[in-house]
Design brief:
- The structure is a single chain.
- The protein is an alpha/beta fold.
- Strand 2, helix 2 (about 60-65) and strand 3 form a beta-alpha-beta unit.
- It has 13 helices and 6 strands.
- The chain has a 6-stranded parallel β-sheet with strand order 3-2-4-1-5-6, with helices on both faces.
Amino acid sequence: MNAVEKLPLLALYAPTACGKTALCSELFGRSSLFFASRAEIISADSMAVYRGLDIGTAKPTAEERKNLVHHLIDVCDISQQFGAGEFVESADKLAFEIASRSKIPAVVGGTGFYLRNFLLGLPPTPPSNPLVRERLKERLSKEGSEALHAELARFDAESAKKIHPNDAFRICRALEVFEISGKPRSAFSVSGAIRSKYDVCTVILTRERNELYERIDFRVDEMFRRGLVDEVQELLFEGHNACEPGMQAIGYREFAQKWQNRQFSLSELDEIRDNIKRNSRKYAKKQFTYMKDIPGAEIFNADDSDLVIKKISDFCDYALNLLDVSGKRYDNL
């Protein structure tokens, strides 16, 4: 694939509560003064893929999705794993389908692990071994994810730092890689260059830390007002538990960890609310580290809307000119 054939793609990344959804609506929504209905969003949110996790993941509303097409939302059950490999495969397919319609594929979200692997490629780790994976699953059920996370930290501290102690799937995968290859997962790295099939404009939004933390706290309070407690309790009464991939999401795991098959007390809810805010702030800080060194990425303060819109608009003008002429060339990989 030569330079002319590269698929133009917008990558928009920002920590939670930075205003990504509103910006995309302003740029690409049906009533937009800029590029109305000329883009489709590929959601890079690792928890928006799960059906039933609505309020706590701050998914775009039904109205927002009617205004602007979003993909990779509500695509799997809470019990299913949807990791970086599944995301990259799905996003690749969608990007070319969207381009074939002469629209801009826009990969938008705050899951840096997803977006980084999409832009740079997946590390060449060894394929899964069913026997090893099953053995690790048995250990997980007996020992718990924190014990396996502690084991991982002993021989692959770098991976352990990036994986939450409750993220059972990624912990087991890292342990599996080590058992199969004899090397830590962190030893498998990508090239550090954007994949050659894409011509990417990467925009990263930030906010001053205090402002971002205030927005996060407000969002969590708003989630509780919108019925987060009822949403989570319904899932827990249905039998979902803290070991399932979907229940690892911030806003859900804090409830699941305290679940005792009864209604939560007011004091428990206050503690859970505080934990969600604290975990969200920690995650927002971590999100930036995933993407700050992406080649060609430009970082903007989210309040500098004129600069952000100009940067994206300039790229979209170029991309649409190319897609309008040759969009059908992108009808397959």
